[in-house]
Amino acid sequence: MDNTDTKIHGGGGETSLRQEDESDSDNKSGMRSAEAILRLLPVILCVAALVLMLKDSETNEYASLSYSKLGAFRYLVHANGICAGYSLVAAIIAAMPRPITMSQAWTFFFFDQVLTYLILGAGAVATQVLYLADKGDTTITWSSACDSFGGFCHKATASVVITFIAVLCYALISIISSYKLFTKYDAPLSTHL
Amino acid sequence: MDNTDTKIHGGGGETSLRQEDESDSDNKSGMRSAEAILRLLPVILCVAALVLMLKDSETNEYASLSYSKLGAFRYLVHANGICAGYSLVAAIIAAMPRPITMSQAWTFFFFDQVLTYLILGAGAVATQVLYLADKGDTTITWSSACDSFGGFCHKATASVVITFIAVLCYALISIISSYKLFTKYDAPLSTHL
Fold first, then answer.
1. B residues 97-126 closer than 8 Å to A (CB)
2. Prediction pTM value
3. What is the ipTM of this complex?
């Protein structure tokens, strides 16, 4: 299981051992910083999407519309809030200069997967509501709302686009955490070359 | 990288080598069958969800409603069709008695991830439309459609529930394919214990 250790101890004399340890340490800190930055990015994106949506309300002569009137947008706000909070905690833990344990790797893997699905679902339903608000659906007598609430729809669209950039970050993060988890295991018998 | 090979050649005499090869071969075929079955399950689920939705139409004295009138349900039908087709091909390839190559592992990994996101998104938007069709939204004057089209809503709900069971299968499949891919790699330097 511990391939890197085997390799380091298997390499030449004490000098080469020290050199490998140094480059190992450099690599470690480089990878840690890269991961911490990638985990901080969704914090900014989710907070931006959340604030945009929270401040999104419009009143015209007929009615007043705000994000809280639509279930999908409320879900988007909650999902963005949860993701921002989790990403911040995860970034701090990932930045700590200590080796990751097996249970930490599993925890990261689990939550990264769940939150990727959560934020993707939130982005998808919000996109669907925006589409209906823009086009309407005559068969079931849903009229277009964006004709009367143009500003509201624009802000909501911006929030959804930012959410989807956060989804991309999360997809990447969940690949990284599954890489970090599963490289700790041996190859299954059915896949060895 | 090739941990299993090292282990087999490292073990005792020729007899133990043959025994290990036999149990290796049994394990291989067991894992292959399990994976093939897990990949066949979404074929059945997706086809069931697809057929239910395709046959879902209702006419009353006011209007006629079918899945094709709602963008989200059309997307659900397409997503289910794509997933059923992919899962069938993937199950056949996974069942073949030969070792998986690196490029195959990457291909499975990539498509499993993408299709998990695709079918999750389809399930999410369809759920959102069902929610709106059931409750309506008075602020933007969208009336409830399920009062007049109860049968349509019930069938659509069944289709969406089946889709979400397929999503669970896909989430599991994408974990398995990332396990099979990443166990082929060495542990990154920053995570070794």
1. 99-102, 105, 113, 117, 120-121, 124-125
2. 0.83
3. 0.82
